[in-house]
Amino acid sequence: MAKSRRGRGGAESVVETVDGGTAELRPDRDRPRARTLLIDGAPQSFVDLDAPDHLDFSYQRRLGHAADLVAPPGKPLHAVHLGGGALTLARYVAATRPRSTQQVVEIDAPLVQLVRRELPLESGWRIRVRGGDAREQLAKVPDGWADLIIADVFRGARTPAHLTSTEFVTEVRRALADGGWYAANIADGPPLRFLRGQIATAGAVFPELALTADPAVLRGKRFGNAVLLAAAHPLPVAELTRRAASDPQTGRVEHGRALRDFTGGAAPVTDATAVASPQPPPDAFV
């Protein structure tokens, strides 16, 4: 059932019940065609229809850096987005890399309908949205097809357990091209046990890793998002570091020995031992 709420500047929020809870598309004060997607009050995505290359959330900017650096500027990509939200990163890739071919997997069909109705995609963008479970749909991607696979899957505010294991990451590597990258949005808080396990899990499958996040998150001071990058070849750590440092919310990049030290001997996660990411604390989004 849809409802409307009067938002900033006179625009109305659109509120609907979706499979994942209560979805709200909230207007922005400064951008007339921009909306923030919230699920049960937790901010999920930001989209500006007038500027699809604008990434507002810090973690989405960090995922955007991966999309920028995985290939020469402007070169079309084959991209897979596990988790759709408001299709922010798919829009970004379409705007910055015309003629890219993208697949988006989103299990929440009512959410997809809401987003496509209220925040329509531009005609000509090669974005196919598939319904269903992320791991099941990933298994249908041909071997070596993707230049970039982004995992940003949350049910409620937690990443499902079956998307956190070495078996899942092995499936990611199968679908990636030789020069492709895997980028995962990981949410955790002190003592960062889940994040450390996810680094170890990706490291069991990929030889090259980098992690970027707010320094306070990496120090275990608060709950937040970290973006883990993985590839079969060296990552451009210096450029990633420069971009993270120049973001509006400054980020830090860890790699190599520092990242191994940060991981602290955590064991890779398997399907048999996997658990969902932790529930955010009540004040995480206040």
How does this structure look, described?
- The protein is of the alpha/beta class.
- It contains 9 helices and 13 strands.
- It has an 8-stranded mixed β-sheet, sandwiched between helices. It has a 5-stranded antiparallel β-sheet with strand order 1-2-3-4-5, covered by helices on one side.
- A hairpin with a 2-residue loop joins strand 2 and strand 3.
Structural key phrases:
five-stranded antiparallel beta sheet, 28% helix, eight-stranded mixed beta sheet, 13 strands
How many helices? The count is: 9
Question: Looking across the biggest beta sheet, what order are the strands in?
Answer: 8-7-6-9-10-12-11-13
- Straight-line distance between termini: 26 Å
Helix/strand class: alpha/beta
Q: What low-confidence regions span 5 or more consecutive residues with pLDDT below 50?
A: none
Helix content: 25-40%
Task: Give a short overview.
The chain is an alpha/beta fold and 286 residues long. It is built from nine helices and 13 strands.
Task: Outline the secondary-structure elements.
Layout: E1 2-6, E2 12-18, E3 21-27, E4 34-39, E5 42-48, H1 58-69, E6 78-82, H2 88-96, E7 101-106, H3 109-118, E8 126-131, H4 134-138, E9 146-151, H5 166-175, E10 176-188, H6 193-203, E11 208-213, H7 215-218, E12 224-231, H8 237-246, E13 252-255, H9 256-263
Parallel strand pairs: 6-7, 6-9, 7-8, 9-10
Antiparallel strand pairs: 1-2, 2-3, 3-4, 4-5, 10-12, 11-12, 11-13
Helix pairs in contact: 1-2, 1-8
